[in-house]
Amino acid sequence: MWSNYFVQPDEDGRIGMAGAAQGVGLGGMKVGRGQRRTQKMSDSQEGKIKLAFFVSIIGVTLTVLGMGTEFWVELAQPKNFSGNQTCQMVHYGLWKGCIRTLWVADIDPERTSCGPAELPGETNCTYFKFFTSGENAVIFKKTTDKKLNLAAAILALLSLTMMVMGSICIAMSLSKGVPFFLKPGSFCFILSGVLVLLSILIFHQSVLSLLSSDHSIPLHHELSWSVACVGSAGAILIFGGFLFIILSLPFSPWQKCLPHNNNTT
Fold first, then answer.
1. Fewer CB atoms inside 10 Å of the end CB: C or N, the chain?
2. Using CA atoms, how far apart are residues 166 and 63, in angstroms rounded to an integer?
3. pTM score, two decimals?
4. The pLDDT value given to residue 228
5. pLDDT digit string (tens) for 71-123?
């Protein structure tokens, strides 16, 4: 029994090879486990992760900025449609729409439609009732498709949720000093970018559905600066997600240049 715990010398006074090998094997297993548990990222890798995180934060900022505005699309009547000194146009986003009354004298003579929205005039903004009573909005006798508008808004909110989850994963990876959370973070950022782009596509389809609902009033429509802002944010988020994937690879491109310590016996 006690021979299992103590290494007994043989007749020549040498330690038994089985016990020594067993001790070395157990020690090696413990060391290997300890190395895997305490594997830390290098300072160079941490700096690259921070740079990729900064790029992703730019995408998050642009997304929040674009989604909170009501300048996704502009719908403008012909500037002489009413036959008086004023004309009307509408600009709206995911949550709110605004009707602006502009002076025809302030509009560029070469422009045939009312606008742009930056000109001075009266503004009347209201929130859509898609999320409360479920009513469609009526804009210049044209009716919105609330299903498409709701789908675009839900995708936008889901993208924001994925951005928050991705930021938490990257922050945990940096605070713990381990690259384990890079892959979940990259997945969250890539998915958020895809959802942002899908939200833009569905919103554009809702605009086309609105224009086709009635043809009594001719309207000129164009996507505004918020769509460009959100579209750029989606591309940046996808790019940042792929950067995190590259950084999480066990054999990253820059690691080929690092010296390797080969233990020789």
1. C
2. 14
3. 0.76
4. 94
5. 999 999 888 887 788 899 999 999 999 999 999 988 888 888 888 888 888 88
Cβ contacts of residue 174 below 8 Å, gap of 6+? Answer: 46, 49, 50, 53
The Cα 214–Cα 144 span in angstroms is 10
Is the pLDDT at 177 greater than 50? The verdict is yes
Largest CA distance in the chain: 118
Identify the three-state secondary structure at position 42. coil
* Cβ neighbours, 10 Å, residue 231: 19
CA distances, 120 to each of 35, 86, 96, 233, 234 (Å): 66, 12, 20, 29, 32
Inter-CA distances, 252 with 43, 64, 244, 247, 249, Å: 14, 32, 11, 6, 5
pLDDT digits (tens, 9 = 90+) for 217-254: 888 889 999 999 999 999 999 999 999 999 888 644 44
Spatial separation of the C-alpha atoms in residues 257 and 208, rounded to whole Å:
54
Residue 85 phi, psi (nearest 5): -85, -5
Q: Is the dihedral of CA 182, 184, 185, 189 positive or negative?
A: positive
